[in-house]
């Protein structure tokens, strides 16, 4: 895959080391998080997206709590 020297060389090429230090990588993670969120909302696997499953499971849990309370 990648050797340690290759990874170090790639990381050294990211600008902003003097001003931002380790925080210079935050924009990459911000964009990566936004991309993951967009994929979970828009990309369908079979018939459902991640949020379809999340909403269905949340409503099922709410229904179960109502049954237990009664």
Automatic annotation (TrEMBL):
<protein>
    <submittedName>
        <fullName>Ubiquinol-cytochrome c reductase complex assembly factor 5</fullName>
    </submittedName>
</protein>
<keyword id="KW-0812">Transmembrane</keyword>
<dbReference type="InterPro" id="IPR028183">
    <property type="entry name" value="UQCC5"/>
</dbReference>
<dbReference type="GO" id="GO:0034551">
    <property type="term" value="P:mitochondrial respiratory chain complex III assembly"/>
</dbReference>
<dbReference type="GO" id="GO:0097177">
    <property type="term" value="F:mitochondrial ribosome binding"/>
</dbReference>
<feature type="transmembrane region" description="Helical">
    <location>
        <begin position="21"/>
        <end position="41"/>
    </location>
</feature>
<keyword id="KW-0472">Membrane</keyword>
<dbReference type="Pfam" id="PF15114">
    <property type="entry name" value="UPF0640"/>
</dbReference>
<dbReference type="GO" id="GO:0005743">
    <property type="term" value="C:mitochondrial inner membrane"/>
</dbReference>
<dbReference type="GO" id="GO:0033617">
    <property type="term" value="P:mitochondrial respiratory chain complex IV assembly"/>
</dbReference>
<keyword id="KW-1133">Transmembrane helix</keyword>
